[in-house]
Design a protein that fits this description.
Elements (H helix, E strand, L loop, with lengths): L5 H12 L6 E2 H8 L3 H13 L3 E4 L2 E7 L1 H11 L3 H17 L2 E8 L2 E8 L14 E3 L4 H8 L3 H7 L16 H14 L1 E5 L6 E9 L5 E10 L5 H21 L8
Antiparallel strand pairs: 1-3, 2-3, 4-5, 4-9, 5-6, 7-8, 8-9
Length: 256
């Protein structure tokens, strides 16, 4: 039977540490894996050389995941039932409202868009599959952040002040925590010009067979079409669309 290569196993162990932390230092990696610092240093240098990890700007001894991992993840995502099922449901929701519909997942402190269906309007949201945005600035991201356990949310908010995309972005962690409490109660999140001043979005959670929130679906429209009546209708559509997709992922509402 072929033997496993210890160095490869250790490199993969390092990468897997980032599943629940956006950033780690070399010392934290060594402590978590109980490895000699010289070994960790050599592995980190190798991973950085191949861009699987990158040094955090201004903090050269702290690391975060690099683009090749996103590319591998995107290739894998194309094989997921979530993506296949989401494309059909998103098309149905978009057809009902004639606005852009997205499905996104959380990656650290960011969201990545897996599915996009455009509206037919000449004025519409500019976005793309694979695009990455700060989660706290988007409706899908706020839904996903609101689903995290306290420790997971703490890890995302570890660095204090959050980057803003517009003057309306929530950049204070304490204010974001309070906002996410309301999102949990409402079951939907709204982007009020927090990622793009000209756009508004409403999003709802997508759950899998375990009940865990695995993605979020949103309806996005220019502010010129974001009327109170439209918001009510689009909120209903995105709730229904997310519920339909959740059911296809095996989620069943628990009876009380």
């Amino acid at each position: 039977m072929p033997r496993v290569v210890p160095a490869v196993i250790r490199a993969l162990d390092i990468l897997e540490l980032f599943l629940d932390r956006a950033q780690l230092s070399a010392r934290e990696v060594a402590e978590r894996l109980d490895l000699p610092r010289t070994t960790v240093h050599e592995l980190l240098v190798t991973l950085v050389a191949r861009s699987y990890l990158i040094s955090v700007p201004g903090q050269p001894v702290r690391y975060r995941l690099g683009m090749p991992l996103f590319q591998l993840g995107a290739a894998f995502a194309g094989q997921l039932d979530l993506v296949r099922e989401a494309q059909g449901v998103a098309r149905d929701v978009a057809a009902a409202c004639d606005e852009a519909v997205h499905v996104a997942v959380l990656d650290g402190a960011d969201v990545i868009y897996l599915v996009k269906v455009d509206s037919t309007h000449p004025v519409r949201m500019v976005s793309a599959v694979g695009r990455r945005l700060p989660a706290h600035c988007t409706a899908v991201g706020k839904i996903l952040l609101s689903s995290l356990a306290p420790a997971g949310l703490d890890a995302v908010l570890l660095n204090g002040a959050l980057p803003g995309m517009t003057p309306d972005s929530i950049t204070d962690p304490d204010r974001l925590r309070e906002h996410l409490d309301h999102v949990r109660v409402e079951g939907v999140a709204v982007d009020n010009g927090e990622s793009d001043t000209a756009m508004r979005c409403v999003a709802a959670a997508i759950r899998d067979h375990t009940g865990a929130t695995v993605a979020a679906m949103s309806v996005s429209a220019p502010i010129i079409r974001w009327t109170p009546q439209a918001r009510v209708e689009w909120t209903r559509l995105v709730r229904d669309g997310a519920a339909t997709l959740s059911a296809r992922m095996g989620y069943r509402v628990q009876s009380r």
